[in-house]
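#struct-help
A.M.: can someone run this one for me? Single chain, 294 residues.
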Amino acid sequence: MRITLTDLRAAKQAGILTQNQTKQLWTFLSKDQEEVPSFQFSHVMYYFGGLLAISAITLFFTQAWETLRGLPLFFVSCLFFLLGLVLTHFFLKRKLRIPAGILATFSLAVVPLAVYNIQTWLGYPPEFQYHYSDFHYWVNWYWIPMELATLVVGVVLFSIYRFSFLLFPVSIALWYMSMDLVPLIFNLQRYDFNDRATFSLFFGLFMLLIAVYVDVKYQNKKQDYAFWLYIFGVITFWGGLSCQESHNEWSRFFLLHDQCRHDHGQCLFQPPCVCCIWSARCFRLFGAFILFCF
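D.P.: on it. Structure tokens below:
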């Protein structure tokens, strides 16, 4: 429940609070909510600028930078990483945790770029002529070291700073890993659609278990640390489950059936059942969408 100043003024007019109590309570609540992201103009601009910088170093990393590929671009990546951490501490000293968390996440987003250039410098090129920007578009076992490094650095940064937004790139790395691990497990070559779907299903379940653990461990904290793990865990689990076979009405009730162009039975997981047990917002969101489809 969100309490506003209008609510406190209404309580004062009803005789529940005095004028002095209203001011003191509002001061206390305002200070308590400073670290919680909201749709304030300043918070929106923080995230807009941060996501713009993160996108520039990840999704929009053009091939023009490939001329520096190898050791030069690795040092550039390290400079970006250190710059993000320096700015993180700069904002922390001024008790601005939201921009500090965004800058720490920016540093974490640079880690795959640094590992990619280390791989290239060590003479460990991808099987095909991939560029760094292909990391976000193509499934390949070559990206596994980049994803593992992101997970390790993300856990270290999270243990130091406790920023919930740090789990955003960590969750994306886990999501990518659910797809990139398949070629590595199945001898790099021989794997089919069903193998990939089944592996994603169990990997998504593993991510959801991690999310539940994080949610229970930090349930008394102000930050929602499990949010991104829930989102990408459900996407991974649902994506794998949506590719399983379903041939009758009972299975379609839980796994909504459709026919895809490759004659595989396409089905959709129904998280509303989970909503009754675990009240995570992402389950309600996905559940409402899938019930609409059903």
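A.M.: thanks! The CA atoms of residues 9 and 125 lie 65 Å apart.
D.P.: also worth noting: Residues 42-149 form one domain.
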